[in-house]
Amino acid sequence: MKETDRLSPLDRRIVRELQRDAGLSHAALAERVGASAASVWRRVRALEADGVLGKAVRLADPEALGRAVNVLCQVRMTRQTVEARAEFEAFIQSREEIVECYAMSGEWDYLLRIAVRDVADYDRFVMRGVLAHPSVAHAASNFALRQVKYTTEIPV
After folding, report:
1. Cβ atoms within 10 A of the Cβ of 114, count?
2. Is the backbone of residue 106 left (phi > 0), alpha (psi -120 to 50) or beta?
3. For 18-66, how does the pLDDT look when each residue is reduced to its tens digit (9 = 90+)?
């Protein structure tokens, strides 16, 4: 949607409910938001077409999958060229351990969230992957002790 467009109250309710449970049937979603199933179906399709709603996914439990250790890694590049950044970002996309990556302003160029099995797994990854990359000058790591808050819901 364009910045000037506004979501209707019904669209906002639909987005809130789908952020909580993307697996809802159109009938169940319609019941929760107080509209007909046909109307909800049309609005969901319009929200998808406008880019408000992306793909539906299921969230997996990292601990159950043996990836309970979260590391936040700050990266500083050796050079700031378009080519160097593109090369590093292609590396980021190729590594499944990196579950989030942000290009940053300030002292560090990138912030990575890395999901690994244990400290040794992270050590191998950072030494053979991140620090071995020719565009990386420095990296600093912080291990998450526990998760205080995590949500995928964007306020609507």
Report:
1. 25
2. left
3. 999 999 999 999 999 999 999 999 999 999 999 999 999 999 999 999 9
